[in-house]
Amino acid sequence: MTAAAGAGAALAACGSSGPGTSSGTKAGSASYWFLTGQPGEGIRQAAAERFNKANPDTQIQFTAFENDAYKQKIKTAIGAGQAPTLIWGWGGGGLKSYVDAGQVEDLTPWFEQNAAIKDKLFPSSFGPATVNGKIYAMPCETVAPIILFYNKKVFNDVGVQPPKTWDDVMALVPKFNEKKIAPFSLAGKSRWTNMMWLEFMLDRIGGSQVFQNVFDGKKDAWSDPAVTEMLTKLLDLVKANGFNKGFSSVDAGANADQALLYTGKAAMMLHGAWTYGSMKNDGGDFVSKGNLGWIPFPTFAGGKGDPSDTVGNPGQYLSISSKATAEQKDIAKKYFTSGVLDEAETKAWINDGGSVPVVKGTEATLAASPDAEFLKFVYDTSVNAKVFAQSWDQALSPTAAEALLDNIAKLFQQQVTPAQWVANMNGVIGK
């Protein structure tokens, strides 16, 4: 499971087999595949059904697949030129591979003609939808930034304040260790959980362009001095016992990292916004009593990154198959106009999904939620981000992403030096 695969209940709660549901509409309509798992599956299905009811002559034929089955089936279908009209995905590296193969439509002219639709969505959500300066996907569904959570009770008991800078972080580590409390909870066995640290650190130290150079395939992009500084400072934290003992054998799938935070065995945890719901569900009265806190990732002295930048999952994405008929493409674009993130779907993601949709102007609905304070933080973080960087393992190609996760795990286990890490990662740029 990757960070992107865990974005919100819609992505984390997937069924055991697929296809799960099918609309059974007539041939000749636009086809649409999406993921099973509630509440996301129900929200997606209801949106398509509303569109079909309002447009009896232009139908969306939908089928739902379990997460892993979908990934395999969509890859095979696209490769065979038999993709559904609407291709649901995570953007980034996967979308770029579709673009390079000529399998998806360039939507740039359509967005230019429909500026109001583009304007209603978070600007940051368009990053993973954009390849070589052109837009190839419609951002949809929800946003899930990575957040630094903390246990307020632990901080009060120790008599310290949440960190604002990296120097603050390193100063807090011995204070928590002295009290036999892990400074940070980390489920390192999952690898992508480790990755979240480097994503934020590199952005804060070097600015967003450093990873953009990697994504763009620039030769030796990982040799940027900011990368070595990031790796060195991360190792400083590891060597200072900044994480829970045995972190490299803890699996995020069992939410053991979250349990360390809400039971007070760890003071802080860097994780996705989606963990809020599970901590609320599993942590007893931890959330309801107001003991869960959240803050932006700390800044670095002399860092080039914009403090408003964030990382994580800027949204999910719908592309249109270049192999679809003209009629099917028109139906898909009509769905973009009146079906995707309509008022009912937007409210459902908030009220049923416990998430923040990638739509501006939802403040009133968010404010009415029992989780209003947290949802406002997620909304403000997402809509105000100058850059919302996509999780690296989704932004890169599958080959480069696997090498990245492997080398990150080795770094946290002190099995590679910063120089070796840089050399290893430069070797898979563009692959």
TrEMBL record:
Coiled-coil ranges (or none): none
* Gene3D superfamilies, per the entry: Periplasmic binding protein-like II (3.40.190.10)
Q: Name one Pfam family in it.
A: SBP_bac_1
Signal peptide limits: none
The molecule here is called Solute-binding protein
Q: What is the protein's species of origin? A: Actinoplanes auranticolor
